[in-house]
Amino acid sequence: MSRALQIEERAALWVLQREERSWSSTDQAEFEDWLAQSDAHKVAFWRLESGWREADRIASLGAPLRPVRRRFDELSWGKPLALAASLVLVFTFLLLQWPGAFGGSPPRAQMQFATQIGGHRIVRLADGSRVELNTDTAIRALVDDRGRAVWLDRGEAFFDIAKHQGRKFVIYAGPRMITVLGTKFSVRRSPSEITVAVLEGSVSVDSAAANAPDRHTTVTAGDVAIASGRSTLVTNSAEAVGQQLAWRRGRLVFHDIPLAAAVEQFNRYNQKKLVIGDPGLAALVVGGSYSARNVDEFVRLLRAAYSLDTRETSAGIVLSGRQIASRGSVGQLRTSFSTLRPKSVIDGCRLGPPDCGVVPLAPVSRPSPMADHEKALRDANNWDVLHKLYPPRALAGREEGLVGFTVRIDASGNPTLCKITQSSGHPLLDLETCQLIMVHATFKRAEGMSRSQQRSYEGVVNWKLPTTVEPPVTPAPQRIAQAASPEPMVCKRIPKTGSNAAFERRCMTKSDWQRASDDSRSLWDRLRGEGASCRPGGAGCR
Amino acid sequence: MLDEEATLNAWFCAEVLPLERALTSFIRRNWRVAADVTDLRQDIYERALAGARQAIPTHTRRYLFTVARNHLINCAKRGQVVSIELVADTSALDLGSDAFGTERQLTAREELRRAQQGLDQLPPRCREVIWLRKVEGLSTRETAERLGIGLDTVEKQITQGMRALVDFMLGGDGKIRRPLYARRRSRSDLR
């Protein structure tokens, strides 16, 4: 392998390892040594790291870009054969293992499965049932032809129980036992309570104590049951079930819950613990959808949106209020996007913001109808993106309001022109909204439209400030004067250098185009007036 | 010292890297052994960085291409394969050809699209691993657990995917370069 590729490989490994939780100060020292060894190392590392960070953008694509599983028709000819062969093997194995096949009765074998903090594991039981273990979970399973039982010793698990001619499946979770025939549901055991969320079918929750009165609680699809002490509370909300099950996709979804509860959730998943250093903060209301194992992102968001102070100590990341909490009152940052589509109702919109009506900031996903909780999750994702996008300048200047806009969209779903139809009263905020839309929004590709056709889309963004923020920093006056009236964005197709066929699209305001043109003209004039002779080792080229 | 490194880093990422596509095609045009391109590019970057340590150049494009030309000429001389065309071509280096800096400022949207394309054209398993890392934020160990494959495999997949993705985003072809067999050594020893 060539030298450059070797260095690049090492650099890639550094980039990767630096993101890991196990990164230690010795690793850091070793890494710095390596970096200092030569410029070649630095160059390779910087190149990869900057590109890798750029690739963070794909996270903003959200759910639609699921990794494409290979479909059967894409498989090569050898693979179905291999698949068939392995199936035969599995069946032979099952036949051999099946106790009834030989009439004997071997001792019942108990199986144990566990995950560490941050872990996620799917196990398949002998009867075809599937159990998905969440973080820090331990179960024991005893499944054979005499009975089916699972003990949830700690943590949380999702059960997809296969039906077997009237054979019951029992789950023991501390003081409760859950009896089912064949359904999909999750059980979470915490020291104080048992939470059961049912996705399909119904389950029965009973007290596990032998002398307890015989009291059934039936929990059906869309229900969440919380059992604590002797009582069991059942609420019916598909939303809540979706929220309870978000962990299966590695996400945490919060709907306006106190920070303390959110922190508790994150701590279940991560070795790096969050600590609330300021009692006033515990009641701060947070919402959104987060990656459960990416605590840094959550912290970054808290820092950006609520201006919290974060300190990393040996105990974990300590959160404390910088400005807000010290005054005893805590604000809530709410950005709600509501779209007003002419002559059409916002589909599946049952809750107030931020749960629905979000402008499709992440590219619009599959057009097929989605389950409600999936939609809620996606919207929460969108909201999450938006949440980060509140223009910092507008936040500092305490600007908020309703911004109405019209976007012209070309056939492939890209916005080409954005106009303000209703001003928020803050020209800069209007402008920024249009800029956000031009840069981040993608719309559904229209079927049956020719390439030259365009359509338009009307919408409203409702920017809302957190209820309490530090008094505004007065914005620089010349900026305001400059942007007295919102300028429309202008997009141009520019031929790419080196190709006759390729074009790229650039969008700027009119004055920016003018400036760019002036800049390049003056640069061109200067270049023509100068000779080109300089050395790399010399004192820079001017 | 640290400050200076940070400035260099910022300059390198913001000014030099966007020129990678142009630089690569420049090297490819002027050097006949295609397998040497990566090495040459790396050397040119290294030299450019060493030079910039004294003063950050004002015209990065001109600076970078001058470094590239000098390096190519040096290598060609050392390798005793000076071709007439090379010297002729490099002396007529068109430094001002892209004064508009089109490739320098990709808009955020185009970068996103580029990242998406880069991701799409990775092999399926590799793409899945990168996806889990970037979007779901899983660590190597968690990815290994989720997919039921070894830690080494995950690490290899991520590093390969990362290199291909970065290459693609900087204007390369984004192919995974597997060290399946020893590469042909070039005739000129580049070091």
Give the gist of this structure.
The complex is a heterodimer of chains A (542) and B (191). Chain A has 542 residues and is an alpha+beta fold. Chain A contains 12 helices and 24 strands.
3D structure, described in words:
The complex is a heterodimer of chains A (542) and B (191). Chain A is of the alpha+beta class and 542 residues long. Chain A is built from twelve helices and 24 strands. In chain A, 29% of the residues lie in helices and 29% in strands. In chain A, β8 and β9 form a beta hairpin. Chain A starts with a helix and ends in a 14-residue tail after the last helix. Chain B is an all-alpha fold. Chain B folds into two domains: 2-91; 108-169, Winged helix-like DNA-binding domain superfamily/Winged helix DNA-binding domain (Arc Repressor Mutant, subunit A, Orthogonal Bundle). Chain B contains nine helices and no strands. In chain B, α8 packs across α9. Chain B starts with a helix and ends in a 22-residue tail after the last helix. At the A-B interface, α1, α3, α10, β24 and α12 of A face α1, α3, α4, α6 and α7 of B.
